[in-house]
């Protein structure tokens, strides 16, 4: 294989170079193109790219690096460019002190000590690297690099320093300033998964999640309907949002932006609809009670009403309940039935309403109950209901049917 042959020759060259001789011959041993694309396996998974400024067009190198999982580490090749020692950009813009890059696209910044034969034992980056980039930090090499996918556009001034000694030590070093100019990503964000509408209870936390593609994404969640930016949620700046417990139906959405634009998610509607369990967790949660007594069919306070019936009626399940407000009396030669309604409100009842329906019977047999017209499905809001009927000589029974149901 041609690559193997190159590798062999390169190692040969390395031996020669390390004796600091035959710099001139270096150029004659290799074909120029061969050196530029030389990839060596050095017994480990690491791949090494060896190159030299003179022989390299920056376009070719960038291409090589893009398909190679690159771990740049010079193998001791010398550069024979004459002149004062300096640090020179090899790629992506050979010879320049500015480094063109683009958010969201792989950057391989490669630089080398050029000039008089020189090899750095250690390298340092002075200044903050743009987010997404890493310093390869090669050792014992005249070549080093910075690679990665930048996420934020902007201009970043950094200094590269090559030390003659290991561990960035010693007084002999060269420094070069580069300006990494990261152009904005041209790919605006896209949402692959929108936050989902869901039904929750007044005692539960929920998590909304959005999944988006694009680079340098920023998130801002809002209360309200998609596109309405009047109620941003402070600190809600990641892919997910923890919500609740909620006391009322609430909508949320998220705007995702990057340098190229933004996209708004669909609205996620969170409907609060309580049930026995949310009521029980709220009501029994505050007291020390045997958990077995909190089941719907138990009578925790031993007043003859199961917990579930207490829930429906709006009674306390931990205090004996006496219905003192339902009365039956004679008034002005009429029969009056009166009762106090109880609003369905508070934790355990969000999204629900309590409906009262009066029924009558002449003999209490199971199929004898009929609705009292005009007194059906009365929504309880704390009002007192009085039903007045003409007296008759027949026996009459009344019963009150209470239903807890989703708000109509
Ligand atoms: Ca009870
Ligand atoms: Ca009770």
Describe it for me?
This protein has 408 residues and is mainly beta. It has three domains: 2-183, Immunoglobulins (Immunoglobulin-like, Sandwich); 192-272, Immunoglobulin-like; 323-406, Immunoglobulin-like (Sandwich), CATH 2.60.40. The chain is built from six helices and 26 strands. Strand 17 and strand 18 form a beta hairpin. The chain binds calcium ion (2 copies). Residues 299-301, 303, 305, 310, 317 line the site of one calcium ion.
Named CATH topology of the largest domain: Immunoglobulin-like
- Output the CATH homologous superfamily of the largest domain: Immunoglobulins
N-to-C CA distance: 79 Å
Number of helices: 6
User: What is the domain tally?
Assistant: 3
Gyration radius, rounded: 39 Å
Strand content: 35-45%
The main sheet comes to:
5 strands, mixed
User: Which spans of ≥5 residues are poorly predicted at pLDDT below 50?
Assistant: 1-82
Number of strand elements = 26
**Would you identify the CATH architecture of the largest domain?**
Sandwich
Regarding CATH, which class of the largest domain?
A: Mainly Beta
Which ligands does the model contain, each kind named once?
calcium ion
Structural class by helix and strand composition: mainly beta
Q: What portion of residues is helical?
A: 10-25%
Mean pLDDT reading: 79
- Assign an overall shape: rod-shaped
Characteristics of this structure?
single chain, Immunoglobulin-like, 5-stranded mixed beta sheet, 4-stranded antiparallel beta sheet, mainly beta, 26 strands, 6 helices, binds calcium ion, disordered N terminus, rod-shaped
């Amino acid at each position: 294989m041609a690559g193997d042959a190159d590798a062999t020759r390169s190692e040969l060259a390395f031996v020669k170079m390390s004796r600091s001789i035959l710099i001139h011959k270096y150029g004659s041993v290799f074909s120029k193109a061969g050196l530029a694309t030389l990839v060596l396996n050095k017994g480990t998974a690491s791949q090494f790219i060896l190159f030299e400024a003179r022989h390299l067009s920056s376009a070719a190198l960038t291409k090589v690096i893009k398909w190679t999982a690159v771990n740049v580490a010079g193998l001791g090749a010398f550069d024979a460019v004459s002149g004062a020692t300096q640090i020179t950009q090899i790629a992506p813009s050979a010879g320049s002190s500015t480094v063109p890059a683009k958010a969201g696209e792989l950057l391989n910044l490669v630089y080398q000590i050029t000039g008089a034969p020189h090899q750095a034992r250690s390298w340092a980056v002075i200044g903050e690297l743009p987010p997404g980039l890493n310093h390869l930090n090669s050792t014992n090499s005249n070549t080093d690099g910075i690679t990665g996918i930048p996420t934020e556009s902007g201009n970043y001034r950094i200094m590269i320093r090559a030390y003659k000694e290991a561990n960035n030590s010693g007084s002999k070093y060269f420094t070069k300033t580069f300006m990494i100019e990261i152009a904005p990503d041209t790919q605006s964000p896209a949402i692959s998964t929108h936050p989902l509408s869901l039904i929750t209870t007044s005692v539960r936390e929920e998590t909304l999640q959005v999944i988006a593609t694009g680079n340098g994404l920023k998130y801002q969640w809002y209360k309200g309907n998609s596109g309405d930016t009047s109620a941003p949620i402070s600190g809600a700046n990641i892919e997910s949002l923890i919500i609740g417990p909620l006391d009322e139906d609430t909508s949320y959405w998220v705007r995702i932006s990057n340098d190229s634009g933004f996209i708004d998610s669909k609205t996620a509607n969170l409907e609060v609809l309580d049930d026995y369990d949310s009521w029980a967790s709220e009501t029994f949660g505050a007291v020390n009670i045997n958990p077995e007594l909190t089941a719907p069919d138990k009578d925790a306070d031993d007043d003859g009403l199961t917990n579930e019936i207490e829930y429906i009626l709006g009674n306390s399940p931990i205090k004996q309940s006496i219905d003192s407000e339902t009365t039956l009396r004679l008034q002005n030669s009429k029969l009056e039935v009166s009762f106090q309604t109880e609003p369905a409100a508070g934790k355990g009842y969000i999204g629900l309403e309590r409906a009262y329906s009066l029924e009558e019977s002449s003999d209490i047999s199971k199929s004898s109950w009929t609705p009292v017209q005009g007194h059906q499905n009365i929504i309880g809001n704390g009002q007192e209901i009085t039903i007045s009927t003409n007296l008759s000589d027949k026996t009459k029974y009344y019963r009150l049917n209470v239903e807890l149901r989703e708000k109509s």
